[in-house]
Each structure stands twice: as structure tokens, then as C-alpha cells.
TrEMBL record:
It comes from Candidatus Accumulibacter adjunctus. This is Thioredoxin-like fold domain-containing protein. InterPro entries: Thioredoxin-like_fold, Thioredoxin-like_sf. SUPFAM superfamilies: Thioredoxin-like. Residues 7-65 form the Thioredoxin-like fold domain. Pfam families: Thioredoxin_3.
Length: 77
């Protein structure tokens, strides 16, 4: 099973992206974790380590995919 992490900040763009992307992944193939960086700022460094520059972003097996621009990570520090 592949690991997928959906990072977001709770903004309308992020919520829409979560509904469209994170929930659309096949649960038999992906273990999806949703991380709200506005509520768990300790994980911002983790997201940066994967190459996430803005949210919403989806990381699959360590590869960051930027979905849309909601907020830069610097705004969440």
C-alpha cells in the first residue's frame, strides 16, 4: 500500500481540493493521511522536507504534488 499525505491549511481552496483529490484515491491502494497544518504547525517542517511549498499539496511516496495555491508554507510558521 502506498502512503499519501494531504497537507492543507483549512482554507476553501484546500477543503475543495481535499474533497476532490484526497478522497478520490483508491483506499485499497493508498493509505491517506490528512494533515491540517493550521492546527498542527509542528508538521510544517515535515511538509517542507517533502518539497511542499504551498498548500494544498498531496505527497505520494515522498513525491510532492501541488494542487492549487491556497497558502505558502511560510504563512503557516
Amino acid at each position: 500500500m502506498q502512503q499519501a499525505i494531504f497537507y492543507h491549511a483549512g482554507c476553501p481552496v484546500c477543503v475543495t481540493a481535499e474533497q476532490q483529490f484526497a478522497q478520490a484515491l483508491d483506499p485499497a491502494r493508498y493509505a491517506v493521511e490528512v494533515v491540517h497544518l493550521g492546527q498542527d504547525a509542528r508538521r510544517v517542517a515535515e511538509a517542507e522536507g517533502f518539497g511542499v511549498q504551498s498548500v494544498p499539496a498531496l505527497v505520494i511516496d515522498g513525491q510532492a504534488f501541488h494542487i492549487n495555491f491556497g497558502a505558502p508554507l511560510s504563512a503557516l510558521k
